Amino acid sequence: MNPSLLVLANLPAAAAHTARYAAALGRPLGLRLALLHGNRYLALLEPELVGAGAAPLARSAAQTVAAPRARARRLPVPAEVAVPTEVAEAGGLGLLEDEVAAAIGRYQPLLLVLGQGPGKGMFNELLRRQVLPVLRATGRPVLLVPAAPPATAGAPAAPRRVLVAVDGESFGLAAASRNLGGLLGSWAAAYTVAHIDRYSALLGTSARQARADVRASKLLPPATPLALYKVSGAAPAAGILQAIADTQADMLVLIARPRSFWSEVFHRSVTAAVLRHCPVPVLLLPAAG
């Protein structure tokens, strides 16, 4: 099967923008999109998170499939809808987990793309309760796409300035993360490694080592130029957000270490702090181990 991207949008307001953005990412390599619609899973969230405003989202099964199929026909790349199947709840991991896992098994995507609406409460709950267990089990990279700004005009484009934030601790990438090298290399983007040193200790030496670690990870094709951006005396999350603004990055890449992102303390990690405030798409790459 040709490589693909699996797109999951949890809200109608996010679905169209997320699919168009994923199409822009995959277009240079001619990747297919598989659209997995998530509206019908809002009932899995806590009732207070859904609230009365979610009532209009209730749709028949036919309507639920019709909207993403119409959306797929309008995309500039080949796309199909991954039609949800009814799965048994008894003994299962939960409807969304089962169906995302089934879609991953069917399409073998390079990347899982998640869209979020303007309000992050439901998205955060969906991420915590349904998606994280799937990602932990499969080790697939995930791209989190924020809602499009109201003033955005025109079709989304592939990123032009990508910031790769690392903490100076050596790392290796999981096999699924290394498989993204061709995709990242197809965007004709400028790549910058951001090293955040909270205590300003040996900043130059550790920053150069961070860039060498990114090069050694084989995340990018060998000839890709790598600029270096250094932030000293800042907390990790604040430093990363500062680096995004200073470099005018339009995508952030974070290394998701098992002990932080996949653990039960996810909501207290640097990764989570960045996700709550990051204005650009965030690509989370599972590290080895």
Features:
289 residues, alpha/beta, Rossmann fold, 10-stranded mixed beta sheet, 10 helices, 37% helix, UspA, UspA domain-containing protein, Universal_stress_UspA
Domain module tally? 2
The level of helicity is 25-40%
What summary fits the major beta sheet? 10 strands, mixed
CATH superfamily of the largest domain, by name, is HUPs
Element pattern in H and E: EHEHHEHEHEEHHEHEHEHE
The averaged pLDDT comes out at 77
Query: Could you say which structural class the secondary elements and strand pairing correspond to?
Result: alpha/beta
Number of strands: 10
Supply the CATH class of the largest domain.
Answer: Alpha Beta
Radius of gyration: 19 Å
Model description:
By secondary structure, the chain is an alpha/beta fold. It has two domains: 4-145, Rossmann fold, CATH 3.40.50; 161-286, HUPs (Rossmann fold), CATH 3.40.50. The chain is 37% helix and 19% strand. It is built from ten helices and ten strands. It has helices spanning 12-26, 47-50, 61-73, 95-107, 121-138, 175-178, 181-185, 203-216, 236-247, 270-277, and strands spanning 4-9, 32-37, 79-81, 111-115, 142-145, 161-166, 190-197, 226-232, 251-256, 282-286. The protein has a ten-stranded mixed β-sheet with strand order 3-2-1-4-5-10-9-6-7-8, sandwiched between helices. α1 (12-26) links the parallel β1 (4-9) and β2 (32-37). α9 packs across α10. The longest helix is centred in the middle third of the chain and has 18 residues, at 121-138. It is globular and about 55 Å long. The protein starts with a strand and ends with a strand. Mean pLDDT is 77; it is low at 39-60 and 87-94. Belongs to the universal stress protein A family. Pfam families: Usp.
